Amino acid sequence: MHDTLRALRAAQWDILDRFAALDAQLTDFATALGQGGTAQAAAQAAAAAPVAAPPAGAPAPAQPQEGTFLFETPPAQEAPLPTAPPAQKAARPEAPRAAAAPAPPGPGGPARSLEEEITASPWGVKKAHADSALEIRLGQKLLLAMGILVMLLGVGFFLKYSFDQGWVGPAGRVAGAFLWGMALLGGGELARRRGYRRYGLWLAGGGIGVLYFACFASVGIYALLPEAAAFGLAVLTTALAVALALVYNSMGLATLGLGGGFLSPVMLGLHDMDRLTMNTYILLLAATAPALAARKRWTEPLTIASIGTWLYAAHWGLGPVALALPFIQGYMLLLAMAPALSDLRGLDNPNRKVSLLSPLNALAGFGFTAMLLWQEFGREYAAIASLAYCTLFLLLGTALHRRSRRDTPSFPLALVSAALFLALTPPLLLSGGWVTSAWAVIGAGLLWAGLRLEDRRLTVWAGLPLGAALVKLFWYDHPVLFLNMHFTFFRHGFFETWPERSVTEALVGLALWFVVRTLAAHARQAPASPVRPAQALPLYAGVLGVYLFAVLHIEVSALFWDMLPGARATAISVLWALFAVALMVGGFRLRHAGMRTLSLLLFGITLLKVFGSDVWNFSTPYRIVSFIALGLLLIGASFLYYRYKDRILPAPENEDGAREAA
Q1: For 481-501, b where at least 16 C-beta lie within 10 A, e where not — what string?
Q2: How buried is residue 394: exposed, middle or buried, by Cβ count under 10 Å (0-12/13-18/19+)?
Q3: What DSSP character marks residue 497?
Q4: Rounded-to-integer distance, Cα 189 and Cα 312, Å
Q5: For residues 421 and 389, is the Cβ–Cβ distance under 8 A?
């Protein structure tokens, strides 16, 4: 390792030597250009005159030395240089340069330790700066934060110790805590005015924390104040924190104030307070966060408000339905619409991820709404609420589209949220396979909207309901609803669940076919579309092909299991061969080599099945049918290659070397 480092250092010194020589040449050239003709005449006169020898004992002029850095002053020579002959040009005196540290030794200089080489390297200098910056951050932030935390603990220990020793009465202890908090706020303001803004903000945050602790001590420890009075002091502390945040332009103080505001009812134990009062208080806190987001572009308070609001609703409850429903809708509208309204007004969100709060808050609001309506009136009313939420987000997406805000994150999220609430409606109103069909139709509609609006995000999100429909169909509907045993037969017979099953399978297949057809048409009409439908087309076409093959295999297998069990394997072999022929025809018609390759592969699998299983395990009549049908289909597929070979091979060349038209 040391040898490799020293070889690299040698190469570095060689490059530096070359740069030093080039720098000297450029300096001479620039000086000659600057002096002009006068300098040239003076130089000729100086060349004709004899050059005086330097006085005895005088040091020789400094000359460039190899191995020095650019713009460094080289060390003095040990012996004076010889004077130039009279016929030569006099040596040009160099301009004095600023003294610099001696250059590091070159490859031939004295060896340095590995630590010295690393420290002298540019990487070592950067590391030293990074270490210094880290030290400053630790000194400024970590020590201050730990100091405030330790001070808060000290205040708490003082209150407890003073209580144990009987030094100060409960009223004096609580008053002292309030005074200490106000003193920290005053110290923060003083530090801010003297130029220590960050230091002052930390002190102010510590003061807010001490005031919250004093409110808690006045009720939870000493029971000096009524709960309503302590709650009023906590509300004033929250308002003070938000006001200071606006004055100091500090998002941290606003986040601290809102967090303390949501924790105050829990800390003070206000479980018996009137629900109308508590709901109004939470509504005011929830309204503060969007106001701060609109005024100061602060996003973290909105996150704190979202978490605190719904945790309060889950833990405390909201009261009877008539009282709870209006407040739930108010919470949802304030928290879910805030990011979208910012995009609607054309304001740039510093944190674009905050737009995800819109669907998350809407889902939380819908969850509480649906739960209350289902318990009180039935699930049909919950479905009505789902449709109402879907309509709300459709209107929001329409407004964003009309104001040309389609490039904002809120636009696709609004449409996806509308599709999500629309997808939640079928399970509340319908059951069985109808839910699967509805999800497939919603996915197809979302993809159509994405293509129509030229929004790739919507086309990507469309895969979710389509995928959910396929997963539910094969992993829930068939084994649980239709009682399909191992995808082979149905427990109650083929025709028992056939009406609902066939409609479900047909609607899902039609939705996939619509998606493939729409993507193909869009790819032909707009090949340069930003949605890039040509990339998604093979995926959805493959899904459609696999879906058709799986459904046909399940249905044919179950039908022959009930009607003609001995011919079941033969029917499956014939089905596979027919599907291979269909792929072959589609491959020739669309000039798609992949489809023809899949067809040949399926033919090969069918032949292996026939010769490996059918010929040994079934009676002669079914064996004859299997072989004849498969043979005819193979002959027909071969004829396709004879008939349409020109669609595969390139057109032959004529005598002039040009391709003939097929």
Answers
A1: bbebeeeebbeeebeebeebb
A2: middle
A3: S
A4: 34
A5: yes
pTM score, two decimals?
A: 0.67
Question: How buried is 477 (Cβ within 10 angstroms: 0-12 exposed, 13-18 middle, 19+ buried)?
Answer: buried
Cβ-contact 606, 630 below 8 angstroms: yes
Helix (H, G, I), strand (E, B) or coil at 485: strand
pLDDT value for 86: 45
Residue 462 half-sphere exposure toward CB, CA atoms < 13 A? 27
Mean pLDDT of the chain: 79
**Token pair in block for residue 384:** 């009505």
Q: How many CA atoms lie within 13 A of 104 on its CB side?
A: 16
Provide the pLDDT for residue 4. 60
Distance, C-alpha 575 to centroid of its chain: 46
- The model's pLDDT over 340-388, given as tens digits with 9 standing for 90+, comes to 887 777 666 656 677 888 999 999 999 999 999 999 999 899 999 999 9
Identify which of 602, 550, 639 has the alpha carbon closest to the alpha carbon of residue 610. Answer: 602
CA 303 to chain centre: 17
Whole-number Cα distances in Å, 23 to 29, 66, 90, 339, 647: 10, 12, 21, 58, 68
Q: pLDDT tens, 624-640? A: 887 888 888 889 888 88
Structure tokens at 532: 């890039």
Pair 569, 600: CB distance under 8 Å = no
Question: What values do phi and psi take at 143, rounded to 5?
Answer: -65, -40
CA 322, 326, 328: angle at the middle one, nearest 5? 110
Mean pLDDT value of segment 503-520: 95
Measured distance CA(331)–CA(604) in Å, rounded: 62
Q: Which element (helix H / strand E) includes 489?
A: strand 489-490
For 208-237, the DSSP string reads HHHHHHHHHIIIIIS--S-HHHHHHHHHHH
Range 542-547, long-range pairs (CB < 8 A, 24+ positions): 543/470, 543/512, 544/509, 544/512, 544/513, 544/515, 544/516, 545/583, 545/598, 547/470, 547/508, 547/509, 547/512
- Among residues 569, 567, 635, 571, which one has the least CA distance to residue 603? 635
Report the amino acid identity of residue 75. P
Query: Which amino acid is residue 295, in one-letter code?
Result: R
644 to 556, 588, 633, 640: CA distances (angstroms): 31, 7, 17, 6
CA 199 to chain centre: 33
Eight-state DSSP code of residue 356: G
Place of tokens 């200089």: 109
Range from 64-73, 219-228, 394-403, 494-503 carrying the lowest mean pLDDT: 64-73
Using left for φ > 0, alpha for ψ between -120 and 50, and beta otherwise, residue 140 falls in alpha
Tokens encoding 186: 């005053």
For residue 258, the SS3 value is helix
| CA–CA distance, 507 with 42 (Å, rounded to integer) | 100
Q: By the 8 A CB rule, do 430 and 478 touch?
A: no
Helix (H/G/I), strand (E/B), else coil: 508: helix
Spell out a b/e string for 276-308, using b for 16 or more CB atoms within 10 Å of the CB, else e: eebbebbbebbbbbbebbeeeebbbbbbbbbeb
